[in-house]
From TrEMBL:
It is found in: Cell inner membrane. GO terms for cellular component: plasma membrane. Its EC number is 3.6.3.28. Residues 247-272 are annotated as: Disordered. The lineage of its organism: Bacteria, Pseudomonadati, Pseudomonadota, Gammaproteobacteria, Oceanospirillales. This is Phosphonate ABC transporter ATP-binding protein. It comes from the Bacteria. Pfam families: ABC_tran. It comes from Billgrantia montanilacus. InterPro entries: AAA+_ATPase, ABC_transporter-like_ATP-bd, ABC_transporter-like_CS, ABC_transpr_PhnC, MetN_ABC_transporter-like, P-loop_NTPase. It is an enzyme of class 3 (hydrolase). Residues 2-246 form the ABC transporter domain. One of its GO terms (molecular function) is ATP binding. Keywords: ATP-binding, Cell membrane, Hydrolase, Membrane, Nucleotide-binding, Translocase, Transport. It is a peripheral membrane protein.
Length: 272
C-alpha cells in the first residue's frame, strides 16, 4: 500500500509545486494521475522514488517511510519501486537482455554487474517476463533496433525485474502512436492484476486514463482536486483540472483507437 500524507515539494524559494498532497493507493489498483502541464504530476512520482527530495510530508510504501531514507536504506527501498519513463531510458548500444538485467542492479554485487554475471534465476526471470510481454525474440538485439512500443516493453520488463512493490509510469505512452499507446496501457493494466502490483500512471490522454485505469486523480497547481472512478470523470472534472487551459475536451469522448486529434495539453505532450 502507498500512503502519501501532506506531501510538500518546493523547488528553491518558488511556490510549492506540491501542496500538502494526500493519496492512498491500495492493492493492485491502476491509478491515472492527470493534470495540466506543470501541475506537479512528475514531481509527485519522483518524490516517491526520491529522484526528487520532498520538502516535507510522509510517503510510506507497505508501511516503510521513504522520506528521509539515505544511503543503503534508500537504495534498498528504491529497488522496490519500478519506474517506466516516457523516453524509455534504455541504453541503446546494449542488448535487450542487458537492458532488462539492469533491473537487477540493485540486487547483484558490483563484480557481478561489471562482469555481467547475473545469477541464473535472474536470466530465467528475464526470459519469462520478456516472453510475457512479447519481446523474448529480441533478447540479443540492440535496444536501438526496436520500435517505440517494443522499447517501452523493455522498459516495463526492466522495472519488473526489480520485483517492485509498486510501478510508477511517467507518461509511458507519450512517445508512442495511439495504437501502440493503447497496447502499453493494456499491458500495464494486465500486469497490475497478474502481479498484484499498484501502478501509478502520469498521463495526458484522458480517454486512455478513463479506459485503462480504475481510478483517476486530478492535480491542479499541486493540489488534488479530483479523486474518483473514471465514470465520474466528467466535463466538470475536466474543466476543474484544466481550467482556462484549452482542455482536451474531445478526449473525454474519443474512443481509444480513433483519431489522435487532441487538445493543447494532449497534443503538446503526447507528441514529445
Ligand atoms: N528541477 C526543478 N527545478 C525547479 N522547478 C522545477 C523542477 N522540476 C519541475 N519544476 C517545476 O515544478 C512544476 C511542476 O512540474 P512537473 O514536471 O512536476 O509538472 P507535470 O505536471 O509533470 O508537468 P508535465 O505534464 O508538463 O510533465 C513546474 O512549474 C516546473 O517548472
Amino acid at each position: 500500500m502507498l500512503e502519501i500524507s501532506k506531501l510538500v515539494k518546493r523547488y528553491g524559494n518558488d511556490e510549492p509545486v506540491l501542496q500538502e498532497l494526500d493519496l492512498v493507493v491500495e492493492g493492485s489498483s491502476v491509478v491515472a494521475i492527470v493534470g495540466a502541464s506543470g501541475a506537479g504530476k512528475s514531481t509527485m512520482l519522483r518524490c516517491i522514488n526520491r529522484l526528487v527530495e520532498p520538502t516535507s510530508g510522509s510517503i510510506r510504501l507497505n508501511g516503510n517511510e521513504l522520506v528521509k531514507l539515505k544511503g543503503a536504506a534508500l537504495r534498498r527501498a528504491r529497488r522496490k519501486i519500478g519506474m517506466v519513463f516516457q523516453g524509455f531510458n534504455l541504453i541503446d548500444r546494449l542488448s535487450v537482455m542487458e537492458n532488462v538485467l539492469a533491473g537487477r542492479l540493485g540486487y547483484v554485487s558490483l563484480y557481478q554487474a561489471i562482469t555481467r554475471r547475473y545469477p541464473r534465476e535472474d536470466i530465467e526471470r528475464a526470459f519469462t517476463l520478456m516472453e510475457r510481454v512479447g519481446i523474448a525474440q529480441y533478447a540479443n538485439k540492440r535496444a536501438d533496433e526496436l520500435s517505440g512500443g517494443e522499447r517501452q516493453r523493455v522498459g516495463v520488463v526492466r522495472a519488473l525485474m526489480q520485483e517492485p512493490e509498486i510501478l510508477l509510469a511517467d507518461e509511458p505512452t507519450a512517445s508512442l502512436d495511439p495504437r501502440t499507446s493503447e497496447q502499453i496501457m493494456i499491458l500495464l493494466q494486465s500486469l497490475a492484476s497478474e502481479l498484484s502490483l499498484p501502478v501509478l500512471i502520469n498521463i495526458h490522454n484522458v480517454a486512455q486514463a478513463k479506459t485503462y485505469t480504475e481510478r483517476i486523480v486530478g492535480l491542479r497547481h499541486g493540489k488534488m482536486i479530483f479523486d474518483g472512478v473514471p465514470d465520474d470523470f466528467n466535463k466538470e472534472a475536466l474543466d476543474a483540472i484544466y481550467g482556462g487551459i484549452e482542455a482536451p475536451d474531445e478526449e473525454i469522448t474519443r474512443q481509444p483507437g480513433s483519431s489522435p486529434k487532441q487538445g493543447k495539453q494532449g497534443a503538446a505532450h503526447d507528441q514529445i
